[in-house]
Amino acid sequence: MTNPQDGGGSSNEAVEIRYRTLTELEKVLRLLVDRHGARMTLGEMLAITAAMARLCRQEQVTIAEISEATGLPKQNLSRWARKRVGDSIALRVNEEDQRVHDVVMTDAFRGQENIERLARIFGTDRVD
Questions:
Q1: What sign does the CA torsion over 121, 113, 36, 100 have?
Q2: Within 13 Å, how many C-alpha atoms sit on residue 73's CB side?
Q3: 29-50: b or e for each residue (b if 16 or more CB lie within 10 Å)?
Q4: Could you identify which of 49, 53, 54, 97 might form a hypothetical disulfide with 61, taking C-beta atoms 3.0 to 4.6 angstroms apart as the criterion?
Q5: What is the Cα–Cα distance from 75 to 68, expressed in whole angstroms?
Q6: What is the spatial distance between Cα 41 and Cα 44, in angstroms, rounded to a whole number?
Q7: Threshold 0.85, pTM exceeds
């Protein structure tokens, strides 16, 4: 029996896909709550993840760049960044534009065990 909403697969296949997807998401969310605490919003977790991903490839990232990447308001991001200062990130006034604050990584390997757990969940724990 096929269901058009399932993309043409059987309902058993759709249920299995749903189950596997939700259990993987549950693992990720559990890891994020373990790492960041239950009081942090998903938006804050998204902002931190987006900033950290960009800081793997560049020395600094602006609040505006994080806002553009995530769609989150700059005002919220600034407030969250100030709250997280010292938690492996720092805010630095941009040398070229004093109105801009750059987010910089102070401890790139803080929480590495959590990143490694996520890598195993996603299957990205091997470099080809």
A1: negative
A2: 3
A3: eeebeebbeeebeeebbbbbeb
A4: 54
A5: 13
A6: 5
A7: no
pLDDT at 109: 81
Amino acid, res. 25 = L
Q: Do you know the residue count of the chain?
A: 128
Structure tokens at 81: 């960044």
Question: What DSSP string runs through 68-96?
Answer: HHH---HHHHHHHHHHHBTTTEEEEE-SS
pLDDT band at 8 (very low <50, low <70, confident <90, very high): low
Please write the tens of the pLDDT for every residue from 13-46: 999 999 999 999 999 999 989 888 899 899 998 9
52-90 confidence digits (pLDDT tens): 899 889 988 999 999 999 999 999 998 888 887 776 778
Q: Which amino acid is at 86?
A: G
CATH code of domain 40-110 = 1.10.10.10
At position 4, the amino acid (one-letter code) is P
How far apart (Å, rounded) are the C-alpha atoms in residues 10 and 43?
35
